[in-house]
Design brief:
CATH superfamily of one domain in chain A: lambda repressor-like DNA-binding domains
Oligomer: homodimer
Order of helices and strands of chain A: EHHHHEH
Number of helices of chain A: 5
Radius of gyration of chain A: 20 Å
Mean pLDDT of chain A: 83
CATH topology of one domain in chain A: 434 Repressor (Amino-terminal Domain)
Amino acid sequence: MKIRTPADLGAVIRDRRQQLKLDQAGFAEKIGVSRKWVIEIERGHPRAELGLVLRALDALDLVLDAGTGTARPRKASAVDIDAIVAKAKKGKT
Amino acid sequence: MKIRTPADLGAVIRDRRQQLKLDQAGFAEKIGVSRKWVIEIERGHPRAELGLVLRALDALDLVLDAGTGTARPRKASAVDIDAIVAKAKKGKT
DNA sequence: ACAAAAAGTCACCGATCGTTTACATTTCGC
DNA sequence: GCGAAATGTAAACGATCGGTGACTTTTTGT
């Protein structure tokens, strides 16, 4: 599942939590937050703390992967010419 | 890049920002936060707001994808028997 | 239908967020 | 080596987080 908004994140967490047959209380305890926090996250609370969110995902055995959104314009030279030239000028190989 | 900690997130953001040749000020303005916020996020601040983080990633054209961390134990029945049986009993198809 | 479990709501509170403005330090081109 | 641009620090401040505990509503099992 792609996550672009807090609501997306909430949905992912809730789905996975239920898949694992955990109730909010058990889940909250597992990640060390209050039950209130779980309720709010699943609701899509946009101001939740990053660290707690990552702990939650970890507890659900979920891992985030960041990738460029651009469909498939892949190929456009994996090398950054500018950067290489700049370094060359500096003599840094 | 897999993101498991706030520091991972910070690294991903910083790398991508530089790839895009944006300075902190420009980046901050683009996502509507203070420059300080950018500095802290790139440092791995664990209590950053989820919403702002998502806006930042979006501005960098990065998308998060949540996947189960378990290497490849894929296969274990994609169907949740219990859930299906439960629903059947309730008559919900 | 009923009781129990799970989920959601409320008010209060200390802690910390993110903003702003100004200054300090580091990095870069030339 | 200079000067400018980029990056990092600091202090003050209003706003909001997340925790707790008690209560209400919804869902679930039988």
